[in-house]
């Protein structure tokens, strides 16, 4: 476990540096053939070689993935391979073709992630067509789920297109496809409060019979509604109440509860002073956010990876500093209505009503019976004497 954390931490610290010494250290840990350490090492190797298209690194990772018997190691390498092709567009096509035709479903899933990373934010029609084809044709549920989720990474620059692309998938008979559609909406429409996306997620949250689909819909709704108020998106209050209701309901399934707990954390992230976005304010791709969000989606297999979503947060507060990095005393005037930025009402703890003690009513028939028993007992004692 310590090595697992060490590998993941090293990968995050050296992300995108392409340092060969760090890569070799992680590769050494991967080759120890320990399932837990290997999973983190596989992800971290991809982080270090992020967008490098390093041929020897890709060869090492694909070859070891084809040999290894550990599913955890395969899962880590599936994400790591995808990171090496970040932003490489058509250059990644040969690797994508190799991975998507593999007989191992985990490597086919890696092909979906690689497609998502290579064409991230481009909205590339051919890439979307490939993902949609796999989403409806692959025999493995995990691959189909990954393909639909990957649509979110391609469409985040044009979030208004995402609901129309995944609307039919959101009504699929396959729960994994429905979950993927929810996550795609959450990723593509993050922080927008888009009404069409919320309209697709609402029935999933309320009525879906499969609990992990509800989990995904709850998380995705929070990603979309982060920093939205009732003025900008009227549905915020309803979803906040839904989270609280699912968390407090004793009869609710654990998976749905976990989704609601994460959703509550996401919608109030950073003391409500951060937003969630895969692109910067100028419209450029936010590399950290893309990496963090893809690793976050892996919480499906390993819950602690959910922490990586924090890489996608962007501060929205105004911090004024002078040339000495000291905070000057100043006042800012906002012409907007206070209700536009109003905080939601704090949660109130339900007060327990103390019930008054009611004196027990004594029935006359019971008193009569008690008297008879007492007289009979007294008579029996006299006879014994």
Compact summary:
Residues 368-377 have a biased composition (Basic residues). This protein has helices at residues 2-13, 20-30, 35-48, 55-67, 71-84, 93-100, 105-118, 125-137, 141-155, 162-166, 175-188, 195-207, 211-225, 236-248, 254-267, 269-272, 287-297, 364-384, and strands at residues 274-276, 313-315. It is an all-alpha fold.
According to DSSP, the number of beta strands is 2
What fraction of the residues are assigned to beta strands by DSSP? under 5%
Average pLDDT, rounded to a whole number, is 88
Strand order of the largest sheet: 1-2
Largest beta-sheet characterization: 2 strands, antiparallel
Low-confidence stretches: none
Describe the structure.
The protein has 385 residues and is mostly helical. The protein has a domain at 1-84. The protein has 18 helices and two strands. The chain has a two-stranded antiparallel ribbon with strand order 1-2. α6 (93-100) packs antiparallel against α7 and α13 runs parallel beside α15. The longest helix is centred in the last third of the chain and has 21 residues, at 364-384. It is globular.
